[in-house]
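A.,

Following up on our hallway conversation. Structure tokens first:
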């Protein structure tokens, strides 16, 4: 890559943007970190010293592919690292600034957050919760969510957060898989002026979830709710608790949490993260990529129900002692400048959001942003899907005032931490997540496992272990091996397609498997198909993704009805409602086509490739393995 000479300001040099000098010169790191990252054990060992350990580890890494042990025999506690360690220097510093959608506001200092977490830890202990027990959290974006997570971590319970947009059935499936003893939920949460009926959903889920002993309900909305014998309210159980609770001494390898994510089969995968490696990984990526400092006000707009919220709202920023902004609701409520209003009000300096949101803001128009003074912003971030260069440039110019470098961060639920991303000194190319983080070795491989040439698309893989890598899939080692480690033995398969350019910059092209990415949410096509075929009218269903201007991808489904059902609009609506009930709003198909046959191979496998090609108006390609061409003609006829 050609450097224009001096790294001066955000001047455009071909496709390359150079970060502003005032940011680069004040950074605590420089290019040398890449060199240091080549000696993996030494590198991560040194970084681990940034955390507080009750006992130092004996060895940084034991790698028996595909199983790793990080910081062997080290002892620590994640909650201690997010709270206790800050009490002396930052006890009165604001840890959390929370804003509800209706406009209510609460802040917690580190001291207050510590005491609240201790009190809730004591609640869990009183209910008999012990190290290793699982607890499911089904909560809106309210402070009780991070409090409950940190309380679990404090006593060694394993949390499983389920996104509040999931349906009762999806919640039930996740509770039963984890065999959780407690469910923590709320009477509801606010979204676009409406109340999401979380307690009602929870009650429905619990009709068949025998492991749950108690439900703790946060009273958020003031709405009435049905109280059963198993129900307790947050306020009544926390009230009399002591504000001290000693943090459990956890082994570095002890599980910290489970987070379910979609894969290529109908059943969600319980990604397991462990204490030591995960904390080291999220701590240092949050610190270096966002250059977090004591006077930063940091806001990540993700929902804590997803990995981004776990790693970059809760564990990463709090272990750094940052001030974290958390917002409950929609970006366009009550008006389309809600985010900009929040940035201005609290003086947000580091802002991390998703391309799908950026594209909506672009569509709503610059005037909403311009109404507010955002000049205090210094670093921007994006995550969740590839960001198209046009959206990148808009984000850079309109939101960042051409001052703020954009950290396009690539990672996954499984990777726990950001793996491919610029650092604030990295020259940027809009649309590229740039380079692997120090200590990470990524590559793009062809079908045979050979590295692709520059510019050639292939499978994105990670070739060496990293500290926040998933430990396994909950109670499913076999699936863990099969999903990630079998395609190229000893190498982690991400499921994404990518290419590398001459400068070694990575360009993510999207998923290479049967997972689609709708508004940054991972949805398995098989999951949606299973939901559809569970409806009495549906004989067969095939689901594919299609490019969508705002959402990145939209969900398109092709359905063969059973005998006796009419393919009309009404049935389409019923099927959409059915998917909403089975999985949740995020999985509802945007388009439904009724067909009489589907393109299949002679062995009966649905050829999604053909459906995808039809949807995107591309060449259909080789159809020699197709059983008969009738279905393709029929589908083309409907377009
Ligand atoms: C996609 C979210 C391009 C990718 C943290 C990955 C991205 C999936 C980026 C993981 C990015 C995430 N550029 N694509 N910067 N970040 N992805 O598990 O397909 O919800 O495999 O984790 O999102 O989604 P997940």
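Then the amino acids I'd put at each of the 639 positions:
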């Amino acid at each position: 890559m050609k450097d224009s000479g001096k790294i001066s300001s955000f001047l455009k040099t071909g496709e390359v943007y150079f970060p502003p000098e005032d940011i680069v010169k004040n950074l605590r790191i420089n290019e040398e970190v890449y060199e240091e990252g080549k000696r993996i054990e030494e590198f991560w060992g040194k970084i681990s010293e940034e955390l507080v350990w009750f006992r130092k580890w004996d060895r940084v890494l034991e790698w028996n592919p595909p199983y790793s042990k990080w910081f062997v025999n080290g002892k620590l506690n994640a909650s201690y690292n997010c709270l206790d360690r800050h009490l002396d220097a930052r006890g009165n510093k604001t840890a959390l600034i929370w804003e509800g959608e209706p406009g209510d506001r609460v802040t917690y200092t580190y001291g207050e957050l510590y005491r609240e977490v201790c009190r809730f830890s004591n609640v869990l202990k009183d209910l008999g919760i012990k190290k290793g027990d699982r607890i499911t959290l089904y909560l809106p974006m309210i402070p009780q969510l991070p409090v409950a997570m940190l309380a679990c971590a404090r006593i060694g319970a394993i949390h499983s957060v389920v996104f509040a947009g999931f349906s009762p059935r999806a919640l039930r499936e996740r509770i039963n898989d984890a065999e959780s003893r407690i469910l923590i939920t709320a009477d509801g949460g606010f979204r676009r002026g409406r109340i999401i009926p979380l307690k009602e959903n929870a009650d429905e889920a619990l009709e068949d979830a025998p492991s749950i002993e108690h439900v703790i309900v946060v009273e958020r909305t003031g709405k009435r709710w049905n109280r059963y014998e198993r129900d307790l309210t947050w306020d009544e159980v926390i009230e009399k608790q002591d504000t001290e609770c000693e943090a459990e001494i956890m082994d570095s390898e002890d599980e910290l949490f489970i987070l379910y994510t979609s894969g290529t089969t109908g059943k969600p995968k319980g990604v397991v993260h462990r204490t030591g490696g995960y904390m080291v990984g999220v701590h240092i990526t949050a610190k270096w990529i966002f250059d977090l400092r004591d006077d930063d006000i940091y806001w990540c707009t993700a929902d804590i129900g997803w990995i981004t919220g776990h790693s970059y709202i809760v564990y990463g920023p709090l272990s750094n002692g940052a001030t974290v902004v958390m917002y409950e609701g929609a970006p366009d409520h009550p008006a389309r400048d809600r985010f900009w209003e929040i940035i201005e009000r609290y003086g947000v300096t580091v802002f991390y959001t998703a391309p799908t949101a950026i594209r909506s803001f672009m569509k709503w128009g610059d005037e909403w942003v311009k109404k507010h003074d955002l000049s205090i912003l210094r670093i921007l971030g994006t995550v969740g899907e590839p960001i198209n260069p046009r959206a990148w440039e808009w984000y850079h110019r309109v939101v960042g005032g051409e001052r703020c470098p954009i950290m396009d961060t690539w990672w996954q639920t499984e990777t726990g931490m950001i793996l491919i991303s610029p650092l604030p000194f990295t020259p940027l190319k809009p649309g590229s997540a740039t380079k692997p983080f120090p200590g990470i070795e990524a590559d793009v491989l062809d079908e045979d496992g050979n590295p692709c040439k520059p510019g050639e698309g292939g499978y994105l893989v990670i070739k060496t272990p990293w500290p926040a890598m998933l430990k396994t899939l909950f109670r499913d080692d076999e699936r863990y091996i099969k999903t990630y480690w079998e395609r190229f033995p000893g190498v982690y398969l991400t499921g994404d397609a990518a290419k590398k350019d001459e400068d070694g910059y990575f360009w993510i092209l999207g998923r290479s498997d049967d997972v689609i990415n709708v508004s940054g949410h991972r949805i398995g096509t098989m999951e949606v198909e299973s939901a559809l075929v569970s409806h009495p009218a549906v004989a067969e269903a095939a689901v594919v993704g299609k490019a969508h201007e705002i959402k990145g991808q939209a969900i398109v489904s092709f359905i063969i009805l059973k005998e006796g059902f009419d393919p009309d609009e009404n049935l389409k609506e019923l099927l959409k409602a059915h998917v909403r009930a089975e999985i949740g709003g995020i999985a509802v198909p945007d388009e439904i086509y009724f067909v009489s046959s589907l393109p299949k191979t002679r062995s009966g496998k649905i050829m999604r490739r053909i459906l995808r090609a039809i949807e995107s108006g591309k060449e259909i390609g080789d159809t020699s393995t197709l059983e008969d061409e009738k279905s393709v003609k029929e589908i083309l006829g409907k377009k």
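The chain has two domains: 21-429+438-497, 519-638. Curious whether your intuition agrees with the design.

B.
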